[in-house]
Amino acid sequence: MRTEQLEYIAAVTRLGSLRRAAEELRLSQPALSETVRNLERELGVDLLERKRSGATMSEEGRELLPHIINVLDAVDRLRAAAGERHRISRTVRLGTVNAATVPLLIPVVRDFRASHPVTQVEVVGAQQTDIHRALLEGGFDLGLVNHLDGDDVPADFESTELLRGRPVVCVRPDSPLASLTTVPVADLLTEPLIAMRSGYVMHRYVHRLLAGRGPSFSYSTDGAEMGKLMVAEGLGATVLPDFSVIGDPLERRGVITFRPLADESTEVLLMLQRRKAESVPRAAQALHGEFVRRARELGGSVTLRDRPPGETAPRPV
What is the mean pLDDT of the chain? Predict the structure, then answer.
């Protein structure tokens, strides 16, 4: 067994495709496929499930993935201890629902890059269910997802609560709703509504808020960023967590603004999640720490659930 075999299987798992892994590793796909099959023959298990849509970890592969990560981390520690200057850089993959790109995600990635110049950060926008699946299969190291207060937190993940916010109505400053101090639901129904597609927490929240009532006209889109752009272009209003709007470049430029919903006390929680494992890659641990630090600076209510051994809980802010 060779170290590069483990690195190859980790790359295939992370990218979900033998072809994409071969491109990143600068190997031919047949050569990569044969290397992986040799490892599978040596271990006596099928690590991958190969489908037309791509390759994903098999059930046996998921059970062995923590051991693969442990070996790769041990090799990294050995290289660092030996003073190797050109050690292999790690890639941290982060899945996000794009709810806090401006106040949280962008500053964290910028600061992490400054302190870890040889580590790549790959940010992938996805729905919450896709993020959870990729975390379990090893495709993502970390996931940023929204929860409504009171939602059950999946037991398969270590979850860190980063920010708490309230749903607000995001509108253009020239919208009639912008003249209100708070927006009643009845008034929200008078404007075209830009809703998140099914699968997003804010889609579920708005469906519950409207209780079967329909807006004058509606659009649906993927993610907060596109929703805010559509608001800026005058297509209607959207409902987002306040931390997704405050400090956004469009809000700072006065292109969009927001108003609280009247008589509404629901809280939206931004959670940072990772798969429970005995060993977490050091780069993922470092990025996790950057998120917690930034959340403290923003004044978020930082609470750690299912804290892994040896990691201290942050003090509430």
Answer: 83
